[in-house]
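Database export, one record per block. Field names are fixed; values are copied verbatim from the stored entry.
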Amino acid sequence: MRVFFFLLFFIAFDGLAIASYKNDPIQITHALAMHGEPKYSAGFKYFDYVNPKASKGGKLKLGAQGTFDSFNPFIAKGTPAGRVSLIYDTLTVQSGDEAFTRYGLLAKRIEIPEDRSWVIYHLRKNAYFHDGHPVTAEDVVFSFNILREKGSPIFQSYYQQVESVTALSNDKVKFTFNGDINRELALIVGGFAILPAHYWENREFSESSLDIPLGSGPYRISKVNPGRSLTFSRVKNYWAKNLPVNKGLYNFDEIQLDYYKDAVVLLEALKAGQYDVRVENSSKQWATGYTGTAIDLGLLKREEIAHENPTGMQCFLINLRNPLFKDLRVRKALSYAFDYEWANKNLFYNAYTRTKSFFSNSELASNSLPTQAEIDILKPYAEQLPKEVFTTPFHLPISDADGYNRKNLRQSVKLLRGAGWHVENNQLINNETGQAFRFEILLVQPGFERIVNPYVKALKKLGIIVNVRHVEVSQYINRLRSFDFDMIVSSIGQSLSPGNEQIEFWHSSKADIQGSRNLMGLADPVIDSLVEAIVAAPDREELILQTKALDRVLLHNYYVIPQWHIGSHRLAYWDKFGRPTITPKYDPDFSLGLYTWWYEPDKVKRLTEANY
């Protein structure tokens, strides 16, 4: 552990204080940016994307597919209810119009050295839980430790470079980091939910439960119909309601979340006015499902909102733990068999763009040939990488959308033969073991069967036998946690500031930890090194270069079969709300700025008069 001796004299200006010891400056600030400076200076009044005069009141009704049996989203058990984060506060909150900057919520100010080897959060003395108990540094220490010790394995992994968490006083807590410098950690440790130590003292944290938990956030859980619905009520005396980071937010008196077992029923419930807002993920539903008088009259509105978030990688994700998929040529053959062009034309109304990067729709995506700077990063690993990483821009096969895909299937046959497979009695057989090529695609959404079935038929032409298995949500979650699958449809989300989560996605240290996000079981020392370089990137320019290098290596190894993306959100909503003029373009926590909306009684009256 590094030890710093602080000078007793600080120079303060505009909410900022600087101290130094041996040319190692210590900053005291209201916010932390991953790179550069925060957009909002100390003393800012509110975020640009809110209406600080938004009225309070009314109810927001939301819908979700599935069910729930737990209010504990922090453990690897049960199916947690959605939106539970509304009851909790964190040390800091992320702004919705910056790539990665966090501003103080429970923390009034932040103390940090230039090398970010530790961070001290100074808590607000007027912060308290819903039962009136003050939020203290001991609650922060308790929360961190119980998440790492009894929470999902993700927490232990995510915070593995945190050496210690210490309550320096009742309102001051210090996080000390170990290992190589990780600039992101100081921001990350500001983002976990602060739990009340006194509430959990005589309760078992590691078990899922529908006991209503205690928090300190803007809402509390007030009504529950187990597995079917829950209601959050706004805390009228919420301690942080007037803070700049909360001005214009959390305007509804109630937020109700109803669950529906079936996707078709979920859409019909929206059109019947059973809930208010829906983000549409199906191009077919968007093109054909929104009909009726309410839409014709403009009472139920549809809108596409462009965004600047990386769309990540939606894909057929391959479980490398299955020996069938170890050979790159086999994985590439599986990719050539997927006819995206036919699917986009016949299933998606040409609504999508083929995804060709794990960081699509952003400056982080690799494209064309690597630059010299990227080559310099990758050159030490040249013997361990496919040569195409250096010589060929990554491309995916293109078909003529006629439904036959003959050219690409012929290429699949060639690749499979080269990998030691042949067709015998219409089945693909391994030359050495005599094993037939069979695997299972595990699904949780029945609607995906129309996409998977044509792919299964294409694979059958190659002699590959695929079973499609649809399971309910809780079983699906458990099978993913234990890596009990061959192939799934997955979406690997990304942010504009990749960091520690890349370790969870790709690092070999996570491949065998059940519940981790390394679902594919990737264990490659080259990728380990590239991920570690991303985490340690000293500035934005280096971060972009390292991320592009990782992207190239992942793509050229064909670990997934990329699907598609769209650079906008498709939003349907009943016209009963007011909205700010600016939508937070990165919306990290606001679901299209949803928590910046407010209820407008005059619009509701119009709907009532129209019998909606």
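Remark 1: The first strand starts at residue 11 and ends at 13.
Remark 2: The CA atoms of residues 352 and 433 lie 41 Å apart.
End of record.
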